[in-house]
Every structure is written in C-alpha cells, then in structure tokens.
Design a protein that fits this description.
This protein is an all-alpha fold. The protein has helices at residues 3-27, 34-53. The protein has one domain (3-53). Helix content is 73%, strand content 0%. It has 2 helices and no strands. The chain is elongated.
C-alpha cells in the first residue's frame, strides 16, 4: 500500500465514521418513516463501500 493509498483509505474511514455517528444520532429519534430509514441506510452503505472495496495488499517496493 502506497502512502497515497493509505491517505485515501484514512479519508474513507473518516467518512464512514461520520456516517456511523450521524446514523446513531438519527436513530435516537423515536419515529422513523420508511424513507428516513432508507436514507440513513443509504448513507451508511455509500460510506462503507469504498472502505470495503479498498485494496489492502502491500505495495511492492524495489
């Protein structure tokens, strides 16, 4: 993993952390519509997909 790839992954993890924080806050409200729950879930999925798809293989160095 190169330094740029690591920096990108850190940024993606930060976005995922923000999505989780937002979801926890939003879910503290007692009533939710199907649309509001879908919006929360979509935000989490959108934030998680880049992290899940990240290549975590070591980079080859000369």
């Amino acid at each position: 993993m190169t330094r740029d790839e690591l920096d990108t992954l850190k940024d993606q993890i930060f976005v995922l952390h923000c999505a989780l924080t937002d979801a926890k806050t939003d879910l503290q409200h007692e009533r939710h519509t199907k649309d509001s729950l879908r919006e929360i879930l979509n935000w989490l999925i959108d934030a998680a997909e880049p992290v899940a798809a990240a290549s975590l293989t070591p980079s080859l160095r000369p």
